[in-house]
Protein 1
Amino acid sequence: MTPTPEWSATPKGEATASRILDVALDQFSRLGFERVTLGGIAQAAAVSQPTLHYHFQDKAHLWRSAMLALAAVIAEEERLMDAARDMPAIVQLRMAMRLFLQISWKHPALGRIVALEGMAGGERLEWLDRHLIGPRNRRLAQIVREAIAAGDLKPFPPEQLVITLQAAAAGVINLAPLLRAGFGVDPEAPAARAAHDDMILEAVLGGFLTEKSRATREQTT
Amino acid sequence: MTPTPEWSATPKGEATASRILDVALDQFSRLGFERVTLGGIAQAAAVSQPTLHYHFQDKAHLWRSAMLALAAVIAEEERLMDAARDMPAIVQLRMAMRLFLQISWKHPALGRIVALEGMAGGERLEWLDRHLIGPRNRRLAQIVREAIAAGDLKPFPPEQLVITLQAAAAGVINLAPLLRAGFGVDPEAPAARAAHDDMILEAVLGGFLTEKSRATREQTT
DNA sequence: AGATTTCCTGATTTCATAGTCAGGAACCGG
DNA sequence: CCGGTTCCTGACTATGAAATCAGGAAATCT
């Protein structure tokens, strides 16, 4: 009766479904929901368009299924952060930024999706907030609050601070096409990646540190 | 024969055309080209849908016309930057950031458009690079290069540095819906705006300054 | 091998939206 | 008051993309 759950749990056509999800995630994150056509995804995944409807009921389900692939990434991040729960807030924040950069390079779709839907608002943003980025952001804001209280971070509004850190860290990654078009630079080249990570941790995060914290920075590898 | 140029130059229906452009710019910048429907714009502008075709041939023309409204903003910015051409690069950069923040608050569409099309790539990004943001970005990169050479900025890749500064500065502004959904915070409230501007200039830009430059910062109002 | 389920497709329908067109109203200049 | 232009609209067409469905191939089981 019910041919397919949200994530196709059947062991057989799993390869096809996963291939579709990969393509879908990439396209949705670059172009946004409406710009993407099922025909386009089908073609890139080398299947027919109705196959998408077989594995995922409709476009909205496909979108959510693709997002759930990212949920696993977030969950893993959370696990690592949890392990560091007892360290000073500023150390946790630095670690969070390192993880954020790592994830952003490995799964650039996440940052793009957040940017896309975070600007547009609407129900997809609500969904993302509930299932993907909301808890993580609020946890980060809490860490920032503690780091400020400890005198390690300059006292700016924690929510804005968190979003600004993320926007700065993901900017160059998300806007890779712009860098290519405008500067002829490829930010995904290994050297550029390393320079970027340095820049974010050293200059951007560094800029938020208090003098006090700056002095004792060596603790935080 | 030719009823309408790119920007309707006729003095009569100018009010209507300008109303349409306002709505179009807002919607295009929030949702991106494909998500926007002419019917939606027409409704918001209180005209019929064919009216859009009367003033602007088709959707692509309307998009470009809407973007040209931003070109005036960029031109004015450029004029102000030109006036400061002989000041030290680091002072120019600080001024550029102030201007960027001002413009971003006043015309949030600009940052959103850049983010949207900068992630997607394609011909619209090419157009934007040529007509709107390319020259500005390259000029900024040049200023950064000079500021690094003068020992005022930490030596990170100028292109990435410029984009990161802008991404950080525009992040909270572009992602206002995300802040509302995730934190219940309104970044457009006057207090939040002031805090944000401080944060960008003090922490983010500050983080890129060398120790040397940091010491003599008072010159730069 | 035969039966059954899983997986996928071609053909078709439905629907939203971009774009067209003929005509009408409002606003002129004489 | 009247011809002409500018501005706008309702009704229509065309197109592209989402969704449906019957059917067939391929795998799996007995």
Note: Confidence is low (pLDDT under 50) at residues 1-10 of chain B.
Protein 2
Amino acid sequence: MSTQRKQFPFPEFEPRWQQEWLATGAFRAPNPGGTGFDPAKPKYYILDMFPYPSGDGLHVGHVEGYTATDILARFHRMRGFNVLHPMGWDAFGLPAEQFAIKTGQHPRATTARNIENFRRQLQAVGFSYDWDREVSTTDPAYFRWTQWIFLQLYNSWFNPASKKTEPISTYTGADPDSVRLAYVAEMPVNWCPQLGTVLANEEVVDGKSEVGGFPVERRPLRQWMLRITAFAERLIEGLDGLDWPEGIKLLQKNWIGRSEGALVEFAIESTGDGIEVFTTRPDTLFGATYMILAPEHPLVEKISTPAQAAAVAEYKTAVASKSDLARTDLAKEKTGVPTGAFATNPANGERIPVWIADYVLMGYGTGAIMAVPAHDERDFEFAKKFALPIREVVQPPSPTEACFAGEGTAINSSFLDGLPTAEAKRRMVAWLEEKNLGRGTVNYKLRDWLFSRQRYWGEPFPIVWESGRHRPVCESELPVVQPDLDDFKPTGTPEPPLSKARDWIRYSATAGRETNTMPQWAGSCWYYLRFCDPQNSNRFIGPEADHYWMGKNSRPGGVDLYVGGTEHAVLHLLYARFWHKALFDLGHLSTPEPFQRLVNQGMILGPDGQKMSKSRGNVVTPDSVIAEYGADSLRLYEMFMGPLEQMKPWSMKGVEGVYRFLARVWRLAMEENQEGEWVVSKDLAETPLSSAQLRTAHATIKKVTADIEALAFNTAISQMMVFTNEFVNAAPRPLEALRILLPLLSPFAPHLAEELWHRLGFPGRASTQPWPKHDESLLVENEIELPVQVNGKLRDRIVVPKAATKEEIEAAAQAAPKVREATAGLTVAKTIVVPGKLVNIVAK
RNA sequence: GCCGGCGUGGCGAAAUGGCAGACGCAAGGGACUUAAAAUCCCUUUCCGCGAAAGUGGAGUGCGGGUUCGAGUCCCGCCGCCGGCACCA
């Protein structure tokens, strides 16, 4: 195949048009105030999730989403929109740093090389990006603003009264550092002693290092955190106004994990300490027969009795050595030890034992629970194992065995008895609040965002330390660029690699720079904003560009359509929404949400139906497909495979199918002469379309238009195939057919459309034609064929005039020979006539 | 375990509650050709009957239901894929 003559000369014209588009700036989108900006045009911002430029290059999975957005971008341009369709690089990150460690090359060099390759590959597919807007997260001119945004977070707090981000100056408390959106805390990192390095979460698989499979420990280290938890409620509420798949919204909601319940205070008998627990079932308080603290709970030591101190200490050590995974997944059997202390159940004054157990997590709620074994599976399991008392306080609606965790009627609960669960909860919370023993509250699973990494290849923090205190550097000092290190190797301690750059760290005689760097998520949190105004050196985004492209209007989201994989359904999209909301509150942005509409493309599997991976050897690259079949075939096949959102396997035979279709389109216009050269077909003529051809043509305009709008690209393509099949044997062949088809095809197969438009001598370019409009009156037929069913079974067909009345249709249907046969000896009970669809005769 | 999504020919798939399988792949047959490739035409859900044009029945993972009519809506299962997973 590769040595054989191509069915149409795409290797010649595809690169030529790509160069032409680049050279003429065909897809440049002017900003308000810029040359060529037309304020009358509506804007359309269509965004891809930008890639990490890996050394392996693009694979066909990337190309799927990018093709879909490119079709929409081109379609909207043809419909008169000012289209923002940018591309850039999420280029900080581990692989580049690891490659640097291995080869000694600076990550900046390898990153630049990978970007070159990615850009070349994307341009070879003919994507209509506005390359003047290209950004890379690793560019100091870009991450200057990433650091600037960090300073905005550092210098603000979330005011619970206004439920908004405010400058830290509005905070009147004693310790502003305790409320900043960016703050410092001791948090555990993944430390791998064998590798002598900290690991990112993505480098830890099943509690072991991805490289080498060594055990990973959790070790506390001073870390930067972002207070995303303050936005939990806003992040849930904001989802309502967005056009996202319901599944993704649900994923985010579950991740945030809102639950309503109560905080209840239990007093420790011996020390008098109050320990708060969080419960979603305050109605079961009378059934709380013991208490459990997380092993890391700060009061564990204090309350433990001397007799239990050794056992408690031993248990704590055992738990600490377990990784998070060992602690959760592998711990099938419940474990724990008594502290020897007792607490008082505030509801009934009962004396209950206090245990520690690792099934209670320090990171959720208060790190302490009241155990109600009769109505909680975990507490039940624990109580059975350690022979702790179990008391039923909820009557199930129908008798059940063992532990009942559902809703029912309160029993054995004094003033709650007889109340349904919901009402009992309310009553108990009111009682607790009245007695000052607790209060209703809302809890979230969401944790604050651990924002520092012990890495070289990331954004340095614009922070210096002096006398053990942090402070921001001046905005004028941005960007803070990493020093050029020759040695990127881990330090062998949890200290970040930047700690080796002694000169760089020294900020003044008494102050030193922060040596952690930001995580890869940082740069991708706001890149969609920079695309709107990439060259602005005064602001991260200018207000005019923000108002125009992010579209200050009734909808909350700015980007009109955002397409990418589900793997970012939670983290990236949540982080970006968080930053956006903070910046919005501070008055830097005009919309409360970044992405109005989100679509997830499905994964493309290898030809073997397995996930594509190097180790399986089933990776298909766009380069190889383009070499054999051309960029247009690649694009068309990516879209023809099936619905965008669906997972589907690659098939080279399928590529050949669309390649043959494109060749047929080519031959609608071209034929080979004696010398084997392509010349405009002699069958072409300025001849009117037959009425059947007109109908097909206008049906095609209608369907392709509707299908693109619905992102149903596969069916749009089949309709264009139908069109082509209709005309391929027509002689003479109306030129008008190509005037209609080529603009429709242009978003899908832009090179071929451009080339044929040019060769046929039509004015302008296919890609800049106004989008064709269909004429509905040409679609109606004078006579229509209707299927006739008898008792729901197809029996015959009748042909009736378009304008036939129901009565006429009914009469014609009953007169049809097969229908008479089928209804012989039966009485017609009812006849359903659906105009334009069918007739159903119900007979008994 | 909980929460999502998906089950339609040999394969990728299509079908506002209204003719199931458009379009494409593959397979088989034919035309063109010295031959092949390419191209073009025809056939192809399954099971009967018929020499044939035809013709009868079944059929969208399984079992029920709603409806004149269900791939589509409802209830209950089964299978695959994805996410979360001791979250009190």
Note: Chain A has a mean pLDDT of 91.
Protein 3
Amino acid sequence: MTSSAVVQVCSALGDENRWQILRMLGERPRSASALAAELPISRQAIAQHVEVLVRAGLVERERHGREVRYVPVGAALSAAVGQLQAAAAGWDRRLEALRRRAEGSAEVSG
Amino acid sequence: MTSSAVVQVCSALGDENRWQILRMLGERPRSASALAAELPISRQAIAQHVEVLVRAGLVERERHGREVRYVPVGAALSAAVGQLQAAAAGWDRRLEALRRRAEGSAEVSG
DNA sequence: GTCACCTGCAATAGATTGATTGCATGACGA
DNA sequence: TCGTCATGCAATCAATCTATTGCAGGTGAC
């Protein structure tokens, strides 16, 4: 892993095609070929996007005969959301303190 | 804007340098020059990262004389987290249904 | 066994991103 | 006014990412 889990999940979620794929898999697990039949990009491009999602832990492979179906993993997203939430909460607290200080005195001694 | 707000926030959060910057700004708002003095990358690189964060709505500019201080915006992160949470919840529900179906019968008729 | 289909790997081209250097502009302080 | 310091813009380079094509390997159907 080149980066922490949250960063990797965010990076994976930082692309609209991957959101689209994730949404489609959420409706119904599908193979890369099946996804390619409904999206304007090639199967290989989709395979690469899915690989990113797999590495981020957001989807899992499921073999069905010669077919590989991809299934989203809700828990991974929930976990990432939890950490983001914690970060947001921490910042909120600190930022509130900062804001109070800023309103009280714009510039104390340089 | 080239993409939706959530995607943009995720994309901005998909880089460790930007997390680092965000954390440092959370501790204490600073200028790009001040950040550059504490990070191993150039001021310009930091300025570009901060620009990404500003475009994502995660930080705001604050002029103080000839200095430009950057302040994180907790609300933006909270909002994004909220949407991610909604997505996660939706998927969780659907995925639970899928899982139940999968466990009951591996492959029903196509 | 053979055919068809789906997956997987490799190589490649184009676009985007991350980081750097150099210079110009603008504001504060002496 | 002049010097200093911080910001801002432009150009450039390297690395990464996205998407494509082509082909080899495997699995299931007949």
Note: Residues 6 and 80 of chain A are 6 Å apart (CA to CA).
